[in-house]
Design goal:
homodimer
């Protein structure tokens, strides 16, 4: 199967190519020049220790400069950004160069951030090799890295003009990575104007695709394609999250980022934190009389059925002082508006934003601690 | 005198307020909210050891969070950026916050870069206190810092929506800073479609304004205002230097940045390097038959008359290996287009861009070494 979508973020076209195989390097180069309408001076490949073999053995990149980063969320720091910038400078890339990031969400975020500041912006192509990367990091232009213990404290908006999603790369994805990606996929399904994607996921189950089951693979690929479409359309309407449209994508994220920070970055995968956060958003919406119990149950039962951690407090918050750390991280959330936190909660269809004063003081903390009766009502 | 200009860069309005006095902090806050059309959650003041007294004693900023950076070009590094980001986080700023940079070019570039990546972009106001800051760094949205010995290797385009130029701050400017700013002012004057600003500068002389000479001050202020206007109009036409329009502002800069890098960052002031680079651009243009000898003489005689270093090779390049370092820095220039260096050279009026193959191999090196006969012809 081949799918191609082109989104336009602030007049910048961003072309997503979904196909089974990896694109050879010459194809990437030529595609990028055709999209940019100008020659590429030199390329730099960026990968991590998990995707190094792709750059080395699959893309046909012999003799091209490349940069290998450590893998995982804990590597999403300035040291990694500096390594990419240095590799670019050593390879002699100018502003007419092209950074090609090959990997999952972390490689995508880091390569895109580095490209956005290298000589004030150079070319960027992402080859997304993980489910989380495809349904979240690669599309929409958010880049960044973690700093002072805060997720994505530093970052930019810098959409990649060209994104490949070689679906074959998912066949070898570790189960934990699959589960992380599925967390974001569920979240996106909740945002949709219909529950079609949510119902489709319910039929699929939480397992990674089997390379022998062609029909099953195509169903999963179609779900990813639908998710890319939903996210792309939302970002087109509000590329830099200045309005309310793009904020919808943050469903579950205010809770998730605070959990990731309080637990220590890398202790819980992003998608699992998001799944947990979506359950908390259902509880909050229910407590506020916004989320109907039936919708809350439909969402949380899927998440629970797929063996995500849904309890409050989260086991990683049970240690002394962790709830306090969580609340501090929440207060530092970058999605604040005029000094007030904003949460996204499910409606009967889709979602909506709420912020103080609609949320009474202490309600969020009671939800996190599992001290709210509604937590039992939803399941 | 009060002047106000509003430029629009990629749909982002950027308002420049020239006035004699410093704006009080409450005025800055209110002005920014009115321009943004939305409330500011919290502010962070950024200054360096030279402008600390302004933040402490003049603006009325008691009890506001602030961050003091070391001063000078050598402080324009990631450590300084990190200090600003950390101060923002410690002060609890969200994306609805406002960074206010009070200082010259280095403080402007650093504060603007930090604002552009803090939570993917927060509010930015610049209070420009040096001549170089006013005529160069504050207007036009280029931000950045030096990395791996290369000027502005990392940076973004992030125009400040609000810029104050309190002209009183120029009265206490050290002579060396004045000379640096005047170098950029001469460069901008060469770009103008008429030589009116260049002729005006010739009448002014290279001295800083005397606080007693009101008429003299007003002439200088009018020259700064004209320079701000010329730069603003050029940037409006090509905000991200994707075309040729904004590249005109780089007159002398390809030479200047390579000199600054080869000499060691901070060894020569930016404006003095630019003045030296403009003379080299005149020589290059003359050698190529593009710059008329008369125009070359008019420009270089002003620069020489104001006691800028104009010789080739520059005294800082006389040490063993420095010419080679200069040529290497030149090769790494970020203004390369399709792998080729591009230079801006003066015409009878205004300037134009030239690149290889119009420039024969070795010509630039001969100019740098002073091995070109034309160097004598121009003066």
């Amino acid at each position: 199967m081949n799918q191609e979508y082109t989104f336009t973020f602030d007049k910048t076209p961003s072309c997503v190519r979904m196909q089974e195989e990896f694109p050879p390097i010459d194809r990437i180069w030529a595609d990028f020049e055709s999209i940019r309408g100008d020659a590429v001076g030199q390329i730099l490949l960026v990968c991590d220790t998990h995707t190094e073999y792709i750059v080395r053995d699959i893309l046909g990149t012999q003799d091209r400069p490349w940069c290998v980063l450590p893998s995982g969320e804990t590597a999403k720091n300035w040291t990694a950004v500096e390594a990419i910038l240095n590799a670019g400078k050593e390879a002699g890339l100018g502003r007419d160069g092209l950074f090609i990031g090959v990997g999952g969400g972390v490689v995508s975020d880091l390569t895109a951030f580095a490209a956005s500041i290298y000589m004030r912006g150079t070319g960027l192509c992402l080859v997304s090799t993980s489910l989380l990367g495809m349904v979240d990091a690669a599309v929409g232009g958010k880049t960044g890295f973690d700093l002072f213990g805060m997720k994505n404290l530093a970052g930019t908006f810098y959409p990649a003009p060209l994104i490949y999603m070689p679906l074959d790369s998912l066949l070898s994805l570790p189960k934990a990575e699959w589960k992380s990606g599925m967390g974001e996929l569920i979240k996106t399904a909740v945002l949709d104007e219909t529950d079609a994607l949510l119902e489709r996921l319910r039929l699929l189950g939480p397992e990674p695709p089997n390379s022998q089951d062609r029909a099953g693979r195509e169903r999963i690929f179609a779900s990813i394609a639908r998710s890319v479409q939903i996210k792309g359309r939302i970002v087109e309407a509000d590329p830099k999250e200045t309005g309310v449209e793009r904020a919808r994508l943050n469903l579950g994220h205010t809770f998730a980022h605070a959990l990731e920070s309080a637990a220590g970055l890398g202790q819980v995968s992003h998608g699992e934190a998001v799944a947990w956060g979506v359950v908390r958003a259902c509880e909050l919406g229910y407590a506020l009389g916004i989320t109907p119990g039936e919708r809350g149950r439909a969402i949380t039962s899927l998440i629970k059925g797929w063996a995500y951690e849904t309890r409050a407090p989260h086991p990683l918050l049970e240690e002394q002082g962790r709830i306090e750390a969580f609340m501090r991280a929440l207060e530092g959330d970058k999605k604040k508006k005029a000094g007030k936190l904003r949460f996204i909660v499910p409606l009967a269809q889709g979602v909506q934003a709420v912020s103080a004063p609609a949320i009474e003081a202490g309600l969020v903390e009671r939800i996190i601690c599992g001290a709210l009766d509604t937590s039992r009502l939803i399941y």
